Amino acid sequence: MTYGPVDFLAIEFKGNHFKGELMPALLDLVNNEIIHIIDLVIVQKDANGTVSMQEMQQHDNAMLSLFDPRRAEVTGMIQRDDLEMIGEKIENNSTAAVLLFEHLWAIKFKQAVLNANGRVLMQERIPHEVVDEVEKAISDIGKDELET
Predict the structure, then answer these.
(1) Which letter does DSSP use for residue 72 in this model?
(2) With CB atoms 3.0 to 4.6 Å apart as the test, which of 26, 56, 126, 131 could cross-link to 40 if both were Cys?
(3) Residue 70: CB partners within 8 Å, gap ≥ 6?
């Protein structure tokens, strides 16, 4: 079986509450078979710094029923050490959504590469902030050239 790339993602939300846009956006990715949720854990830190964790299967049935079990599963692959590290990093009175997910969109392409006897030489995720910095630097160079 061919797998797509798997990412670990932790997102912090201040105030221990999520706005309504998060779940529909996540469900859109799952329902359109762009990602497959391998594991999902909510890490909360109260105003006193006490950390609590809730695995996806511990959420209410209404939330779990939103995920198609063929495309979302609970594996326990996110380790306790990872969650404790996230708990240390988030601010008091905050919540972190910790996701482990597979990129389904990449599976067909990866299989095509393998079928063509290809191999991946390098794969690296470039953070958005780095892309922004490079774009700005390129833009600044272009401005300098226009001025000369």
Answers:
(1) B
(2) 56
(3) none
